[in-house]
Amino acid sequence: MSGNVLEGIRVLDFSRVFAGPAATQVLGDMGAQVLKVEPPGGDEARYYGVTKARLERFGGVSPSFLALNRNKRSLEIDLRTEEGKEIARALARDVDVVVHNYRPGVMERLGLGYDALQALNPRLIYAEFSAFGTTGPLAKAGANDLALQAHSGLISITGEEDRSPVRCGSAIVDLHGSLAIVSAILGALFHRVSTGVGQRVESSLLLSSAHLMSYFYTEYWMDGAMHKPMGTANHLSVPNQAFPGSDGEVVIIASTNEMWQRLVAALGPEGLDGPEFADVFDRRSNRAALVKAVSAITSTKTCAELLAILEAAKVVATKVNTIGEAADHPQLAAVGGRVELPVGEHRIGSVATPFSFSNAPSAEVSSPPVLGADTDEVLAEFGFSRERIEAFREAGAFGRSQAKN
Amino acid sequence: MSGNVLEGIRVLDFSRVFAGPAATQVLGDMGAQVLKVEPPGGDEARYYGVTKARLERFGGVSPSFLALNRNKRSLEIDLRTEEGKEIARALARDVDVVVHNYRPGVMERLGLGYDALQALNPRLIYAEFSAFGTTGPLAKAGANDLALQAHSGLISITGEEDRSPVRCGSAIVDLHGSLAIVSAILGALFHRVSTGVGQRVESSLLLSSAHLMSYFYTEYWMDGAMHKPMGTANHLSVPNQAFPGSDGEVVIIASTNEMWQRLVAALGPEGLDGPEFADVFDRRSNRAALVKAVSAITSTKTCAELLAILEAAKVVATKVNTIGEAADHPQLAAVGGRVELPVGEHRIGSVATPFSFSNAPSAEVSSPPVLGADTDEVLAEFGFSRERIEAFREAGAFGRSQAKN
Q: In this predicted model, what pLDDT tens digit does every residue of B311-366 receive, in sequence order?
């Protein structure tokens, strides 16, 4: 193997909460040095869902912070102070990439906008992630993952027929946005090889959500078609949804006639071999009857029995897993999808970056950083003397709690 | 502006349906030349959800195919023929990137596995996308987006409390996987600049789904915690969910005490200023009562009224849009999120790649290709004579329907 893909690349990360930190974790896994600049008190995701039991056991770091902040060092910097701004500019002069998700205009007011930093460092790649983008009627509006699930129409197609729709249970807009940021930064790094200069790259929760909805928007733009929630089913094929077993649910996918015939042979044929289910179009028209007929059979068998029968018949089927069943499934570990995170004396599982390189190792896994733990070390690496660093501390550049020490 | 980010990069794309095609569309938007190699009859996504009306109006191309296949040329090649394999190997020798999503082992049996192609072209980047990865107990299992929504536990946390859970309405595992493939390919292109050689990169629906679930898995791995569906709400903060207006639903997010006080002033204070809702922990404990109290107020106002009141109070709120409202919202067009796709005499909207470059234009948008329309042209570009191409046709390398001509 050669070295890491991003060996020698330095990333200055002002982003907080989910999408930005998830993006820079991927860059860190690829070998970049990620410097996480946190405001006094730290990235608010450090405290999401922290309970007393977790505080005692794991030192107060939240699950989502642990999940998205390995392979980084932390600097605690108060950007409202002149000294904090001076430090940020000095670091930006010598890194390859800046990432932030402040609302449009905030970094400019801090003297850390693209134009200001590009003048200091023409090779800089400056990645901005916002809620709705930096122009247009909603540019100034705040939002989170849920807001974009609602705005994008994703909620409108998620849920049960004839009931109020629901959200997708995970922060998928944030996490999809993280790979949009990663793609943009990697594209700009590649482009820099030939152009010699950096550039500003942009993504947003809005664009991330629209990408997740792209085929629904195109269909609407073609002829006005819209869809409704269908439980676990979808409008494209039947059966392609969950069915009850005696001890849980199993999704069964048999969208072609050939697959359906295999399913009929495996689970029937009684009840399933009628002409009302003979063809793709019949099955789509008679979905309710088909679901009833298949369910009558599946509900008499355990999930394990159903999976064995359907696997033997080469029908695609998967158990509707709980989070625990999914996280601990041996397949995830077998493909390197789980890495071990050292947290104090614990080793906690963490989900790997979702792609790998045959000729480049992933970076060794280091714990999510303690807030501000690396401030002095990093500033020394960037050439600040111990005296300068102490003067910054006295001036409150690292937050008032540090200044008081 | 400089040239496109991927100017001069050639991609040979054997992938079908959603994740792979979505990935190569992004590469095409970045300026790569994408050669889509389709089996006789074409990528099956060409026919998903095609109705008679669409067939007449748009020439039979499906919404999802239109959404994910701009900026490509199409070759129809029968890889089961010796001539088809010969063509594929000849193209692979001269491109930068190969992408495929055949089941593990299929490309090897066709003589198109990584080892074979790498021997012909050491600079080749070979991207494999599979269902569950290429090793482990499930390596040979088939799956689709729904199967991984089920396997990953995403379905287990999506839906209403105390009812059967549902799927997320869009193929988010596929689409997230597409950006994993893009990231891996861009990383390998950047790495190739320093190493001089290509490599094999890998992703899967499994890794994509696990990444979307990463913070839930970490929490489970910490102390066994699992979550349940909560409608539009989530376990981290209250209120952070949908509320009824008189003419639709609005999500309202007021997770801190400061935001909650602004909400109380804007919508109340009657009914909302009690001690049972005073603090973050109170609101989380009394969520049902809070939702009832807020709903009693919101249901008397239209969505437009609610959004105006909450915007003025600086409380984050968004309408639960239909697909049409989302697709046609002026914000999407304002940030370049909609591009126009020429399809015959129509121009149909299409969702843009979810990131942009200040110093590199997106490629001009070209229509999704007609099946096999570019076979002859591309083979000529790769040095095949007209006679060779005709001999391939006679031998059935482009499918039997062409051989008969």
A: 999 999 999 999 999 999 999 999 999 999 998 889 999 999 999 999 999 999 99
Of B119, B80, B112, the C-alpha closest to B98 is B112
Q: Are residues A345 and A306 in the same domain?
A: no
Q: Are residues B268 and B165 in the same domain?
A: no
Q: What is the DSSP code (8-state) at residue B164? A: -
Please indicate, yes or no, whether residues A63 and A198 belong to a single structural domain of this protein: yes
What's the pLDDT at A50? 78
How far is residue B180 CA from its own chain's centroid? 10
Residue after which a domain boundary falls, among B319, B347, B373:
B319
Res. A167: pLDDT tops 60: yes
Beta-sheet strands, E only, within A277-393: 316-319, 338-343, 346-351, 356-357
> What DSSP string runs through A356-369?
EETTBPPPPP-PPP
Q: Please check whether residues B256 and B308 belong to one and the same domain.
A: yes
The rounded distance, in Å, linking the Cα atoms of B208 and B193 is 27
Longest dimension (CA), chain A: 85
Q: Which two tokens stand for residue B347?
A: 């121009």
Q: What is the pLDDT of residue A263?
A: 97
What is the nearest CA distance from A83 to chain B, expressed in angstroms?
Answer: 29
Give the number of domains in chain B. Answer: 2
**B392 Cα to chain A: minimum distance (Å):** 31
> Domain for residue B385, yes or no?
yes
Find the domain containing B272 and state its range. Answer: 240-319
Residue A218 lies in a domain: no
Nearest CA of chain A to the CA of B165: how many Å? 7
Nearest to B327 among A138, A159, A220 (CB): A220
In a domain, residue A221? The reply is: no
Query: Do A303 and A203 have their domain in common?
Result: no
Whether B201 and A355 lie within 8 Å, measured CB to CB: yes
- A99 and B CB contact within 8 Å: no
pLDDT in tens, B77-111: 999 999 999 999 999 999 999 999 999 999 999 99
The candidate with the shortest Cα–Cα distance to A290, out of A276, A301, A270, is A276
Query: Does residue A114 surpass a pLDDT of 70?
Result: yes
DSSP-derived letter for residue B360 is: B
Interface probe for B, chosen from A27, A65, A217 (most Cβ of B below 10 Å), is A217
> Which residues have CB under 8 Å from A405's CB, separation 6+?
A393
Q: Do B43 and B162 fall into the same domain?
A: yes
Whether residue B181 lies within 8 A of chain A, CB to CB, comes out as yes
Q: Do A137 and B330 touch (CB under 8 A)?
A: yes
**DSSP annotation of B352:** P
- Convert the pLDDT of each residue in B215-272 to its tens digit: 999 999 999 999 999 999 988 889 999 999 999 999 999 988 999 999 999 998 999 9
- Residue B404, pLDDT score: 46
Element at A245 (helix H, strand E): strand A240-245
Q: Does A119 touch chain B (CB under 8 A)?
A: no
Question: Distance between CA B272 and CA B300 in Å, rounded?
Answer: 15
Residue where a domain terminates, one of A319, A342, A373: A319
Number of A:B CB contacts under 8 A? Answer: 532
Q: What is the CATH number of the domain that holds A257?
A: 3.30.1540.10
Strand segments (E) across B109-149:
125-130
pLDDT at B403: 59
Task: Kindly determine whether residue A213 and residue B330, on different chains, have CB atoms separated by under 8 Å.
Answer: no
Q: Can B282 be counted among the known catalytic residues?
A: no
Q: Is residue B255 part of a domain?
A: yes
Bond into B39 cis (ω within 30): no
**What is the interface pTM, i.e. ipTM, of the complex?**
0.97
B405, pLDDT greater than 50: no
pLDDT at A275: 95
| Chain segment B184-218, per-residue pLDDT in tens | 999 999 999 999 999 999 999 999 999 999 999 99
Average pLDDT over residues A33-52: 91
Q: Which residues of B touch A359 (CB under 8 A)?
A: 191, 195, 197, 199-200
